[in-house]
Design brief:
By secondary structure, the protein is of the alpha+beta class. It contains three helices and ten strands. A four-stranded antiparallel β-sheet has the order 3-1-9-10, covered by helices on one side. A four-stranded antiparallel β-sheet has the order 2-7-6-5, with no helix packed on it. The protein has a two-stranded antiparallel ribbon with strand order 4-8. A hairpin with a 4-residue loop joins strand 5 and strand 6. The chain starts with a strand and ends in an 8-residue tail after the last strand.
Length: 176
C-alpha cells in the first residue's frame, strides 16, 4: 500500500495562533480554510510512496544535520492555478535552502521525480480561492527546531496531515 508523503516544518503554537488570526480576517464565500492542525510549511513533496520503503527513507534522513531554521512570513498571495491563498516569505535562510536540497537528494535517491520549479517557502491557509485578498498583518515568525515526515490521510472533510517521524535540527532523531 502506498501513502502520500511530504517533508515539512511545523509552526509553533504562537505562530499557529498568528496564522489563524490572519485566516479569521478572510471573508470569501466558498473558501475552505485549513484547520489549524494542518498548518505546515512544505519542504519537499514526495507524493505516493510505498509503505515498505518508508524505513529506508527515514534512515537516510538521519545524516541531515543543520541548525534550527527561523522563518518569517509577511505576504499573503493568491496562487491562481491551485486556487489557494498562501503566506509567503520574502527571504530564505541558507539553512532552509540546504535542508530542502538535502531532502530533495534523499527523495531522488529513492526514485522519486521532483517538480522542476524553484522552491518557495509558503504556508497554505485556504483552498478554493478565487482572488487575491488584501490584508494587513504583522509578519509571522517562528523557529523550527525539527523537520517532519508527514502523511496525508484523505477524509470526507478533506485531507488530514499526520506527522509520522521527526528529526531535530542539530540533534538525534525522535520517533513520533
Amino acid at each position: 500500500m502506498s501513502e502520500r508523503l511530504f517533508f515539512a516544518l511545523l509552526p509553533d503554537s504562537q505562530a499557529k495562533q498568528a496564522i489563524t488570526s490572519v485566516m479569521n480576517q478572510i471573508s470569501d464565500a466558498g473558501l475552505r480554510l485549513y484547520p489549524q492542525t494542518n498548518l505546515h510549511q512544505t519542504l519537499v513533496f514526495i507524493g505516493q510512496f510505498e509503505q515498505s520503503q518508508i524505513q529506508a527513507l527515514i534512515t537516510d534522513c538521519h545524516a541531515i544535520s543543520l541548525p534550527p531554521i527561523t522563518m518569517q512570513f509577511e505576504v499573503l498571495e493568491f496562487w491562481d492555478k491551485p486556487k489557494v491563498l498562501c503566506l509567503t516569505a520574502k527571504h530564505q535562510s541558507q539553512a532552509l535552502q540546504k535542508l530542502v536540497h538535502s531532502l530533495q537528494n534523499v527523495v531522488q535517491k529513492h526514485g522519486i521525480t521532483l517538480e522542476q520549479r524553484p522552491y518557495r517557502p509558503h504556508i497554505t491557509i485556504a483552498r478554493k480561492a478565487k482572488q487575491t485578498t488584501e490584508l494587513s498583518f504583522t509578519p509571522i515568525r517562528f523557529t523550527a527546531n525539527e523537520f517532519v515526515l508527514m502523511r496525508s490521510v484523505s477524509t470526507e472533510n478533506g485531507p488530514v496531515y499526520e506527522p509520522i517521524y521527526r528529526w531535530p535540527l542539530n540533534g538525534r532523531p525522535m520517533v513520533n
